Amino acid sequence: MLQWGQDVRSSSGNLLVRHGFRRWSQPELHKGSSRYRLNWRDRVVELHGFCAGLYGGGRPGFIYIRSNNHVWAYLGDEPPVPGHYPSALLAADLDPTWRKAFASARDEFLAWVEHYLSWRRRFLSSGVRP
Q1: What are the DSSP E strand ranges found in the chain?
Q2: Dihedral sign of CA atoms 19, 109, 47, 120 in order
Q3: pTM of the predicted model as reported, rounded to 2 decimal places
Q4: What is the reported pLDDT for 82?
C-alpha cells in the first residue's frame, strides 16, 4: 500500500516510526506483519499489510481492506484486528445513510496521506541517515 512496506525497510531507518507511528503487534490475536498506529488530530491512523484506515474521534472512520480491494466507512471506535472485519461495522460507500460520513472520513484519510507524503519527501531530501 503506497510505499509503506518499503518505508519500513528504508535505508534511512523505519520511516513510519520516524514519522511518529508506534509499531506493535498482538501475536495472540493475529499473525503476520506489524501494525503501525499514529494519533493524528482526534483520530487514529493504523496501517497494516491487510488494511489501512482512520478510526475514532466519535464519528465514522474509513478503512481500505486489501483482500477485497475495497473501501468502507468504518463504524467502530477502535481499529479492527487485521483480517477480521465485522460486517456490522462496515458501511458501503454507496449506502445513502453513510455516504456523507464515508466521504468525510475518506477525505480526512487522504489529507493524512498527503501530510505523510509531504513529510516523507522533506525527510528523504534532508539526507538524514540512522
Answers
A1: 22-24, 35-40, 43-47, 51-55, 61-65, 70-74, 90-92
A2: negative
A3: 0.87
A4: 87
